[in-house]
Structure formats: structure tokens, C-alpha cells
Write a structure and sequence with these properties.
The chain has about 260 residues and is an all-alpha fold. The protein has one domain. It is about 80% helix and about 0% strand. The protein contains twelve helices and no strands. Helix 8 runs parallel beside helix 12. It is globular, with a radius of gyration of 19 Å.
């Protein structure tokens, strides 16, 4: 199956060429972010305000930050690497072969998505490993975790696909990734509750729908809450599904343009 073949190829490439760099960069980011949270927490006297309690639903500031840090590392890996897939093929001289190959595109992108999920799983493991000495308590709810996973990665996959189409059509990666990923960090609720943002940014957060998955993840892992499979949950899936559909509907047009640029 193409999906697993793409994942296997990318995994071998990562393990042979980027594995040590990957671990060092991920560990450094996670450690420094958690250390910053710890310093801020101690500067505040080891407590949280009523505002934080109201917006987050928990007094566990360190747990809030650790869960957000782990998810942002995953978000960064998926958005950055899945979106650059076609541009990487272009730089390596294999874009023409990929575009002309008669395989389902969802399997190609899906293989890249699975590959990144496997690698960025280290972010979550490292955050959990560092959280234990800090006394963070986890109350895991498996069913809620599964619902959070579906919502979160549906949104990420759709956003990464649209970023990929922008990159290949504009033949640029740095401006797009350095604009969209910081916006996701700002509006995703990774390091602070989204409700503390001003109204325009809260509206933007609804258009970049990852913050719902981040909130669900915290509820499932830190609080052990049951996320109901109801109308509100289904509505939270809608923005990510729209991004996915838009990406796949535009994909043939963008691929045609990419092939023309590649051959010109």
C-alpha cells in the first residue's frame, strides 16, 4: 500500500540523516519551554489567578504548559514537514515522477502524515518524562483522548495540505511557514488559554481550528474528563474537514501548475 510505503521511505530517511538533530532540537525546545513555565510559576508564588482558573478549568499551570508544549512540538513537525513534501521532492529532483505517478494523492500525503506522527510522538514522551519529577498528575481518559486525537489531527492535516499547495504554487517555503506556524502558536491555546486573546485573534483562532483539539487533549489527559460525542464535537470537526476538502479539490490544479513550472 502506497500510504505505508511512503511512511517507510520517509522514516528510513529521517533515521539515517536527521535522527540525532531531530532529537536534540525537539528536546531543547521542550526543555526550555518547560523551564520557562517553571520559572514563571515560581515567580508567581506557585499559584494561579482566578482568571486562569476560569479560562483553563484547572489550577495545574505546569500541567497546562507541559501538555501545550508537547502538542506544539507535534504541530510544528506536522505542519512544517507535511506541507514541505512537494517542495522537498522538487529540490531532490523527484517532483516530476511523483506528479506523474498514478497513485491516490491521499495515500501519499497520509504516509507523510503518519511518518511525522511517529517522529513527533517523541515530543509527547519527552514532555511526560520531564513532567513526572515536577509532580504533574495525569488522569487519562482513553475515549476522550481518541476524540481529541481525531479533532486535532483532522485540523492539522487540512492546514498542512493547504500550506503545501501554497508552497508549491508560489515556489516558496520560508515566508509561508514562518507566517502561518507562528499564527498557529499564537491562536492554538498551547501556552495560554485562547479566551485571553483580543477579539480579532479569537476569531482567527476559530478559523485555525487546532485550539479545540488542544483543549480536548488537556481535558482527556490532565483532567480525565469525558468528551461527549455530540453536536458540539461534530461542529468542531467542520473547519478541519473544510480545509481537507478544499485542499483535495484544489490539488489537481496546483499539481498541473507545479508540473508546468518544473518542466519550464
Amino acid at each position: 500500500m502506497i500510504l505505508f510505503s511512503v511512511c517507510q521511505k520517509n522514516l528510513k530517511s529521517s533515521l539515517r540523516g536527521e535522527y540525532i538533530d531531530f532529537i536534540v532540537s525537539r528536546f531543547t525546545f521542550t526543555l526550555c519551554t518547560m523551564a520557562t513555565a517553571l520559572v514563571l510559576f515560581n515567580m508567581k508564588g506557585g499559584g494561579v489567578t482566578d482568571t486562569f482558573l476560569k479560562f483553563s478549568g484547572s489550577v495545574d499551570y505546569l500541567g497546562f504548559m507541559i501538555a501545550g508544549t508537547a502538542l506544539f512540538g507535534t504541530t510544528h513537525g506536522v505542519l512544517l514537514n507535511v506541507s514541505r513534501t512537494l517542495m522537498t521532492e522538487r529540490r531532490e529532483g523527484t517532483l516530476e515522477s511523483v506528479l506523474l505517478a498514478p497513485f491516490p494523492r491521499w495515500q501519499y500525503y497520509g504516509g507523510n502524515q503518519i511518518h511525522q506522527l511517529m517522529l513527533t510522538g517523541l515530543d509527547i514522551l519527552m514532555a511526560l518524562f520531564l513532567a513526572i519529577p515536577l509532580g504533574v498528575e495525569f488522569h487519562f481518559n482513553a475515549a476522550s483522548f481518541l476524540l481529541a486525537f481525531i479533532q486535532f489531527f483532522t485540523s492539522l492535516y487540512g492546514l498542512a495540505l493547504l500550506m503545501s499547495l501554497l508552497m508549491i504554487s508560489l515556489r516558496d517555503t520560508f515566508f509561508i511557514q514562518n507566517t502561518i506556524i507562528p499564527l498557529v502558536l499564537l491562536t492554538g491555546g498551547y501556552l495560554f488559554p485562547v479566551d485571553v486573546l483580543p477579539l480579532p485573534l479569537r476569531v482567527l483562532a476559530e478559523l485555525i481550528p487546532v485550539h479545540r483539539g488542544v483543549e480536548m487533549f488537556r481535558e482527556a489527559v490532565l483532567l480525565g474528563r469525558t468528551i461527549p460525542f455530540d453536536r458540539l464535537y461534530l461542529l468542531s470537526l467542520v473547519p478541519g474537514i473544510i480545509l481537507l476538502l478544499a485542499g483535495y479539490l484544489l490539488l489537481p490544479l496546483i499539481e498541473r501548475k507545479a508540473l508546468e513550472n518544473y518542466l519550464s
